[in-house]
């Protein structure tokens, strides 16, 4: 101990390899001293789990809407329920994301009409299927290029049933940057593509469409003759 310090000393000596009892080379002699301070600092680590740095994962669906418009300019939306039309009247439909997003595009995959808003399998009438027009009056205006899809078709009615017509459409939502997405590929005759999509899909229903009273009066005498 030297003035409160702990001192370690040692001596190291060394000679080169030689033979016999003599050498003509100097040898090594080293005095080693190590002074240890009386105080010390220790360090250890611990980690605090911060409750404010947590992760939350959830799922949701895009908010889409479908509506009729009065003209092909798509300026004025139809708000009448039911929507009264005449046979062969041009009907204009728009499906869009409620909040437009330039990084997404919307593709019209399938549209089917039915006399009931709850049953689209028993008596389906397809306007569009797998992105391909089925009805002869169906006219695509835009699909798969923007965050909305637009099309038109001519009004019709179902035989042997209610005067109402409901329209159900399935749309796909894809990244605009994906040039090989289902939205970009357009019409596909392969039904297998309809079964499962790698992109978000949504199904919407709009209606009812009904004939105006003047149209019903025209049909009255004909139906009586058939009876």
UniProtKB/TrEMBL annotation:
Residue ranges constituting the ZP domain according to the UniProt record: 1-190
Pfam family, one: Zona_pellucida
UniProt signal peptide: none
Region (Disordered) location: 196-227
Alphabetized UniProt keyword annotations: Disulfide bond, Glycoprotein, Signal
Keyword Disulfide bond: yes
Domain of life the protein comes from: Eukaryota
Biased composition (Basic and acidic residues): 212-227
Protein name per the record: ZP domain-containing protein
Organism: Ilyodon furcidens (goldbreast splitfin)
């Amino acid at each position: 101990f030297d003035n409160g310090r702990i001192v370690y000393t040692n001596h190291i000596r060394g000679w080169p390899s030689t033979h016999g009892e003599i050498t003509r080379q100097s040898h090594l002699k080293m005095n080693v001293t190590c002074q240890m301070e009386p105080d010390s600092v220790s360090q250890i680590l611990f980690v605090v789990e911060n409750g404010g740095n947590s992760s939350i994962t959830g799922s949701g669906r895009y908010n889409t809407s479908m509506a009729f418009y009065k003209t092909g300019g798509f300026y004025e939306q139809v708000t009448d329920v039911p929507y009264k039309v005449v046979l062969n009247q041009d009907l204009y439909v728009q499906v869009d994301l409620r909040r437009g997003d330039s990084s997404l595009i919307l593709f019209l995959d399938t549209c089917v009409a039915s006399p009931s808003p709850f049953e689209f399998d028993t008596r389906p009438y397809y306007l569009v299927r797998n992105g391909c027009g089925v009805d002869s009056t169906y006219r695509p205006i835009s699909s798969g290029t923007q965050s909305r899809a637009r099309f038109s078709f001519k009004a019709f009615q179902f035989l042997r049933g209610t005067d109402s017509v409901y329209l159900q459409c399935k749309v796909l939502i894809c990244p605009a940057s994906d040039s090989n997405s289902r939205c970009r590929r357009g019409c596909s005759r392969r039904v297998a593509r309809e079964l499962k999509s790698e992109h978000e899909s949504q199904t919407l229903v709009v209606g009812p469409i009904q004939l105006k009273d003047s149209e019903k009066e025209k049909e009255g005498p004909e139906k009586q003759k058939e009876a």
